[in-house]
Amino acid sequence: MKKLILFLSFISLFSAKADLIQTVKVSDGTLALCQKKTDVYRGREGAYNLKAVAGIRTSEGVILRLRITSLKCTQKKGKFGFKLENLLASSSYNSHGNEIVVDTIDATLKGYVDGEYKLLTEKALQDRKVQAETVFIANEDLVSDNSIKSVDFFVTKLKQYENKTNGYQFKKSVNYGLFRVRFRMTNNTVELLD
Which residues form the domain of 151? Predict the structure, then answer.
């Protein structure tokens, strides 16, 4: 099940160094919308936003500071909108007369060098609405002819589904959409691009 979700309009809320940051949608994801009842159903397993807020150059590589925000589309008094929700929140819904309960067992942040698909980082995330993560990328993983570097980040969740009507259970990994962080390295600094 392809549940790749991005929520780009929420990015402006986190404007720390906004003039130096570039986050772009990668084509394998879908934009999370929250404008009608079908959006509430489609987004029942949540959405997230990832934003690079700082970059530091060291002699060994680059340290990126990321902000991850967990969201859920809701309807209240006829109005639709995203609200903050814990990353590992459980949910339930009805499907063809069956109550389905979905528990999130864990969530992981993964990062890859754009175009090389080499795993650079894999970090367990906490059950928070908003969290900061620091990611180190070694110089040898950033070698390229291009002066602008790109790293793709995404969240994957291990979920357990249970049909309360018949007791059937299964687990599966759900990947959410990619966010691309672009930056330029100079002698002693990292410039996050807009």
Answer: 5-192
